[in-house]
Amino acid sequence: MLAVTVSRPGGPERLSLQEVPEPVPGDGEVLIRVCAAGVNRADLLQREGNYPAPAGVPDWPGLECSGTIEAIGGGVEDLSAGDRVCALLAGGGYGELAVARSGQVLSVSPNLDLESAAGLPEALATVWSNLFMIAGLRSGETVLIHGGASGIGTIAIQMAKAFGAKVAVTAGDRQKLDLCARLGAEVLINYRQADFVEELRAATKDLGADVILDPVGGAYLDRNIRSLARGGRIVLIANQSGEVGELRVGRLMSKWGSIHASALRSRPESEKDQIMSEVLENVWPLVLSGQIKPVIDSKFSFADAQLAHERMESGAHAGKILLIP
Ligand SMILES: NC(=O)c1ccc[n+]([C@@H]2O[C@H](COP(=O)([O-])OP(=O)(O)OC[C@H]3O[C@@H](n4cnc5c(N)ncnc54)[C@H](OP(=O)(O)O)[C@@H]3O)[C@@H](O)[C@H]2O)c1
Asked: Cα-atom radius of gyration of the chain, to the nearest Å?
């Protein structure tokens, strides 16, 4: 089969379509004929050689896909060949066929576009595990979502709204903030033009945010703490601004605040099964009913994977970028 592989670590030009062995589903796994694969920032890091695939996983990128089940491994009872699905993957989504654990597969009903569904599993799992399982976001609380127009952010806004939170976002331009507003965000902050700490304070009558979802990292650490409400929780999911930040202990103590961090891909598969089972129970019905929608920025063929990575690196996109075999 064909897959988008990385010839040598480096820039987007190192991606190319190559013939690779077809993956074989083991016990508890399914083989998916890929309809579309979601592009994630982690794929860019993997391409650069900074995020190697875990042992036993294909070494071409791809953390999520949609498609049709081609074959099932031993012990899989609730899925059958021909089913329309999307799935969280440990890797290998940029191939014509991909293997997923059955516990990380979601069934795609006819009313949900199969290509667009490829952009859902990674964001649903990341947002559910961080905002709800780790930070315990509750109805009536205020959540600040940095990168509101990102693949993760567009799903985070919709999920937080669906569960009754007040949503504040940061984004880098007006168009991205308009998208966030259409998805339900109420406090819109252009981080290039204003200090988000001051803007959030003004919008919440000095109360701050109960939960902050942060993919920016080091440079935001102190400002995030200053933006917390009493008892607030910060969840770090990336360090796009760098590894190092300033932690003022007294400031965090005075807020009774807490800082959490997590990385989805490296979690034990049993934990990812648990996350996806909670997604299936709590969020997937909202997707199937149309209340939560995938936001698709653009689609590229496998042959144009280089352009897809260049678009993500440019930061011009809003929502998810998909690759189509
Ligand atoms: N820990 C985990 O388990 C996990 C799982 C999935 C994803 N992630 C991480 O979550 C992040 C978002 O993923 P994605 O797929 O949604 O990526 P994406 O669509 O490329 O979004 C990246 C976002 O980060 C924002 N951003 C980057 N640098 C910034 C800065 N200095 N200040 C403010 N905002 C900044 C951008 O905002 P503007 O475009 O508005 O400037 C953009 O919206 C990525 O870093 C990814 O690696 C983590």
From this structure: 19
